[in-house]
Amino acid sequence: MTISAAFIDLPRTDNLRAWCVIAADQYSSSPQYWQQVADQVGSAPSTLHLMVPEVYLSEGPQKVAERVAKVHETMDRYRTEVLETFGPAAVYVRRSTPYAKRRDSLIVALDLDAYSFTGEPADVQASEATVLERLPAREAVRAAASLELPHVQVLFDDPQGQVFSLLEAAQPQLPKLYETQLMQDGGSVAGWRVDGDSELWAKVSQALNDLPREPRGFGFIVGDGNHSLAAARSHWLHLKEAGAPSDHPARWALVELLNIHDPGLRVEPIHRWVGTVSAADFEAAAARHRQSHQQAPATEVQILASTGGEVSHAQVQVATPHPLLVKSLDEIIADLVQSFDLDPGADVEYVHGEDDLAELVARRGGVGMVLPALSRSSLFDYVATHGAMPKKSFSLGEACEKRYYCECRRLVAD
Questions:
Q1: CA atoms of 218 and 374, how far apart (whole Å)
Q2: Contacts of 26 by beta carbon, 8 Å cutoff, 6+ apart
Q3: Cα torsion angle, 113, 117, 122, 126, sign
Q4: Least C-beta-crowded within 10 Å: which of 126, 149, 340, 355?
Q5: CA-to-CA distance for 357 and 340, rounded, in angstroms?
Q6: Helix (H) / strand (E) containing 89
Q7: Residues 177-182: what's their mean pLDDT?
Q8: What span, in angstroms and rounded, lies between the C-alpha atoms of 201 and 207?
């Protein structure tokens, strides 16, 4: 069974607003955001104390190691002093954001033996290419952790909404676990318990099992948190090779399950920005790319550039030999990086939202590339036909709409 109910932990606290904090990989270029979170949380029990925001990863190995060690110590303390376990169960979640009045999801356990990030047959597939070099550090953090917090969002393709219609109909009779406003313009969230031995869970589980797998060969793709889930699987495989039993807690990962067709789930393109270069430089690189792909159709791409402090717009023809335009743009960016000896870490940015892209171009110059919107089911079709997409191909909404940590799951036996 790919998806199952789990033993889940929630905090014994009256201050859920301080407890719930956005996923660690958000606002990674905004220390101010995370300082504001720290100021609001103070010493209250909070998931802020159970993770290391990625904005701090540039502090250096020793400082990061100190932060990670403190997180692990806090996990051990929270397990006895703060958290309370229930289950096996799932949590039916309703989230509102500044952009969507309602988004439904389900917190469940995902069997890592049913997941692949390397393309082999499995019921759960990575949606974006996995950078293998990023896994060992993440795996090391998970290996020493006694708790996990669900940051990973897993998508399924249910155009008729059959799975969540079952939960919506039953919601008035379900026990409410929590409801709170979320800090930093995150909207609000509420959760209801779905017991793992209930008739409702049996129906939901069956509906998930009945999702069509053919001709794609799988039922789920990872929408957000590809590297976190890959690190969890890598850790489990190492434990399994060392003789860990099949019921070891590391075999599963707690995830947020969403229907790709939920009207409250906004599937957004991730735009590109390259510093130092001009619009003419980009047009020249696009011309070289067209020359090397003369038989490919061309697509007009909107680019932004800064001229005299004003942001100008232009349309450039880009050869599109690939099913996804983003792959062609990444090839052009690679040409620019090589031609101008750019630093990919500093001179290439992946930007959510056209307004943010325009602001970046106005502030730092360079060239912005506006990606078109993606159709929803096509994400599944692309993965089925071509494998994982290029990195940073799409985003599930704006940064403030990302998963806020709330539920936890124990990775060790007490």
A1: 20
A2: 399, 402
A3: positive
A4: 355
A5: 21
A6: strand 83-96
A7: 98
A8: 10
3-state secondary structure of 254: strand
pTM metric for this prediction: 0.90
Residue 246's pLDDT is 95
Tens of pLDDT along 189-216? 999 999 999 999 999 999 999 999 999 9
pLDDT at 26 over 80: yes
Of 394, 392, 384, give the one whose Cα is nearest residue 119: 384
What length is written for the chain?
A: 414
Cβ proximity of 311 and 269 under 8 Å = no
Residue 185 has pLDDT above 80, yes or no: yes
Q: Are 398 and 353 in contact (CB under 8 A)?
A: yes
What six digits make up the tokens of 44? 């209250």
**What average pLDDT is seen over the chain?**
94
pLDDT at 375: 80
For residue 104, what are the CA distances in angstroms to 23, 242, 343, 362? 18, 39, 40, 37
Phi, psi of 249 (to 5 degrees): -55, -30
DSSP-derived 3-state class of residue 164: helix
Token pair for residue 326? 């983003």
Q: Is 101 helix (H, G, I), strand (E, B) or coil?
A: coil
User: For residue 137, is pLDDT > 90?
Assistant: no
CB atoms under 10 Å from CB of 277, counted, come to 21
The token pair at 248 is 């070891």
Cβ-count burial of 64 within 10 angstroms (0-12 exposed, 13-18 middle, 19+ buried)?
A: middle
